[in-house]
Amino acid sequence: MSVANRKAKEKEALKALILKGAKRLFIEKGIEQTTIRNIADEIDYSVGTVYVYFKDKNAILHDLHSIGFQELGGYFEELFSIEDPMERLRKMGFTYIKFALENQEMYDLMFNLKAPMEFLESSEEGGWNEGLVTFNSVKTTVQQCIEKGHFKGHNMEPLSFMVWSLVHGMCCLEIRQRTKGLKFTNPDTILLDGYNEYLKIIDRL
Amino acid sequence: MSVANRKAKEKEALKALILKGAKRLFIEKGIEQTTIRNIADEIDYSVGTVYVYFKDKNAILHDLHSIGFQELGGYFEELFSIEDPMERLRKMGFTYIKFALENQEMYDLMFNLKAPMEFLESSEEGGWNEGLVTFNSVKTTVQQCIEKGHFKGHNMEPLSFMVWSLVHGMCCLEIRQRTKGLKFTNPDTILLDGYNEYLKIIDRL
DNA sequence: TACAAAAAATGAACAATGTTCAAAAATAAA
DNA sequence: TTTATTTTTGAACATTGTTCATTTTTTGTA
């Protein structure tokens, strides 16, 4: 059994190597500018080998999208030590924006590109688990806010979706160059300025 | 002069024909699935001809993105007869969502795809005029709300950006399949339910 | 009308991409 | 050592955006 065992580990290692190389190139020169040949070159394997370990490009992009969610989880970790749900909700949005701006290509992959979702559709997996888990962080926190007497007259799930949309929308516009295309009074701080307006609002609810 | 004149008009007509064919295919089978050869076939011209009238694919996508903004302008038209700025702001968001859902490929092109912005960067045009005009509709309305005593303690531009991000974020998540990937309690109405939470909030400001 | 010049349209050809698969190389089992 | 299995390879294919020398059409002139 030890040989088969080692082989299995080697397979996993190579898979991880491919993902690591792909991620490096994605961040370095953009996802669209990265080809399978580039990835193969980067890790000194042939094109064919990549296709032994991944069904197609979508599979690579999906696995990398999952890694992105792990990393987002790392950013979120410190949030769960915050007792006050309102304070946690405030910081959560800020952390989300921080992650998006510091990991633009990964964020794009996680929340914008079609590839990961196309992979899900063509696979037997139940649904978008990564998104579900992240959205649950928001929902749970909003629920606790409600239980503490905030957000009177609001519904938990739609309100959570609204909050998520708000931060996602800002990140999206920024990453897809729709803020650079415009000319804001304070172009460098428009995301945080916008988020601050939101903070002012929920502080009163 | 009449010949040169007619020629110029014919050139414009063919350009428009190409754009019309492209748009039809985009809506029918998606932007990513549409090739220049497809477009040429659709209008019974050769590939080369398309390149006589457009520098590259980005140029087509940019022009089509501008057409999208004209269409969005059509949706917005009735808004300007609404006197009360708060009421106008409410309806504006709703109209925006309606446009996005009824014209998903076009919306994607206008607010998500990189092509139109890449075209702008490689051209001598000043900036993203289409986006500027649309965002001005929001800003003007928010400004009028402020002048009427609403949104006390808020700043016009960041607040407008926040509002835009909120609706854009919802549309974006929907169009890029991040709501289908999740499982909402009411999947079919999550956008409107989310928007309603927003309405409840601003009604109090 | 006939014919040369200009303009417009063409499609074969190129480089780059994702993908496949028979063959080669490396490893394991006997 | 020899055979069987696994892993790796890279040439080949279809499809893409793009170019450009050539052909076709239109215009201007005698």
From TrEMBL, chains A, B:
Claim: DNA-binding is one of the keywords in the record: yes
Pfam families: TetR_C_33, TetR_N
DNA-binding region in chain numbering: 35-54
Keyword DNA-binding included in the entry's annotation: yes
Keywords: DNA-binding, Transcription, Transcription regulation
InterPro entries per the UniProt record, alphabetical: Homeodomain-like_sf, HTH-type_Tx_Regulator, HTH_TetR, MT1864/Rv1816-like_C, Tet_transcr_reg_TetR-rel_C_sf
The HTH tetR-type domain, residue ranges: 12-72
An example molecular function term from Gene Ontology annotations: DNA binding
PANTHER family named among the record's database cross-references: ACREF/ENVCD OPERON REPRESSOR-RELATED, ACREF_ENVCD OPERON REPRESSOR-RELATED
Protein name (record): TetR family transcriptional regulator
Organism: Flavobacterium glycines
